[in-house]
Amino acid sequence: MNAQQPHDLYGTGFSAREVPSAAFPVEGMPAYAARYLIESDLALEGDPARNLATFVTTWMEPEAQTLISENLHRNFIDHAEYPRTAEIEQRCIRMLADLFHAPGETTGARTQGSSEAIMLGALSLKWKWRERRKAAGLPADRPNLIFGGDVHVVWDKFCRYFDVEPRTVPLRPEKYTIGPEDVEPHIDENTIGVAAVLGTTFTGHRDDIGGINDLLVRLKAERGLDVPLHIDAASGGFVWPFLYPDTAWDFRLEQVRSINVSGHKFGMVYPGIGWLVFRETADLADDLVFEENYLGKTDRTFTLNFSTGSAMVVAQYFTLIRYGRAGYEFVMRNMQSNAEALADRIEALGRFEIIGRHDEQLPLVAFKLREEQDYDEFDIAWQLSAERGWMVPAYTLPPDAQDVKIMRALVKRTMTLEHVETLAADIDGACRTLEAKGGAHPRERQQVVTGPGH
Ligand SMILES: *Cc1c(COP(=O)(O)O)cnc(C)c1O
């Protein structure tokens, strides 16, 4: 670029041209111009503060942000070069194992999120099952995994990628989680495990984990089938220990062998960080661990990815020591209190039914129209976004509850009581607009905010 050209001189020459978007750029541009181009592009993005669709953290304290920017330049996987970062990962795993009541020494892994943690955890279930089958001289070619229709899509992904038969228990209208009676008919000697959810993405409730554990304990005693239970606590792992400490869903239950949790959801860290924690070291299949030697010490790695940043591991350690149990409890109780306030206000509008509001639940409000109207939940989501910029997803539930349409508003840390009141008034406003128009325009009848899988 010629320094004399006006676009250099005035700094915004690109603003009247098309942005680089297909061909590899022939020439570059000054750093300030590239930054401005990208920032102006992203200015059109939705406002994270009004994104009530995502479970993922949208705000961290300035001290955390500083730590994150100071740790962007270190590759997490270089354990030999950065042993302190590796130690910080181990501290986080030990703290989570303690939070989840692991009985003794355990192991685990930092992952990119719950998805990677679930892939690794489920692989370990498959490997351990194969070991048991081979030791007994039995065939090990038809593994199956049992879970409810209320799971995240990652469970189906695992089954397809790693060649395991999914045995999905369908939901029913009015019943959006699963229990032992749903699981029992599907279990056989080829079952590598059962996956249960603590805090579904659909309505924020939990499967009957205690009941499923009791079933598995009974099957072990009666039929000699030792079927492990994995808990997908992507969201709930940082909620239940603080809001419902007396509910046993974790390693307090005998058959719970592994747990995943997303640090970047209620763990209060930016994406991407997740955790996999085993009950005991023996629950991790040895064959999945790669051993490398460094500095005369053996480094054991168990990951799907390799190179990745250190920043979010450090940020997770920051939140654990910054908040501790008392701080997490305080934050969770605030969110719960605002979720209750939001549920009260939405209920008071008279048009909606709140789903499962008195059951143990993530801090969110799941609601649906009480009666048929000229408009539906998808129209409200569209109208709310068009009028006020709130991102509140509408979606249908999985089979066999696919006729149920619901909306879901996450109530996170950044949502104040003032926001709650404004949102409730804006939902009312959106409904009134739709009523005045006699329903939605066909063009508007589209799912603008897709949920609920994130
Ligand atoms: C979010 C979520 C996942 C996927 O987690 P990521 O951290 O986004 O990879 C899996 N299961 C449940 C229940 C979730 O809520």
Describe this structure in a few short sentences.
The chain has 454 residues and is α/β, with parallel strands linked by helices. 37% of the residues lie in helices and 14% in strands.
Number of helices: 12
Strand order of the largest sheet: 1-7-6-5-4-2-3
Question: What is the percentage of strand-forming residues?
Answer: 5-15%
CATH topology of the domain at 66-319: Aspartate Aminotransferase, domain 2
- Which percent range fits the helix content? 25-40%
Question: What is the arithmetic mean of pLDDT?
Answer: 93
List the helices and strands in order: HHHHEHEHEHEHEHEEEEHEEHEEH
Helix and strand composition category: alpha/beta
The biggest sheet, with number of strands, parallel, antiparallel or mixed sense and barrel status, is: 7 strands, mixed
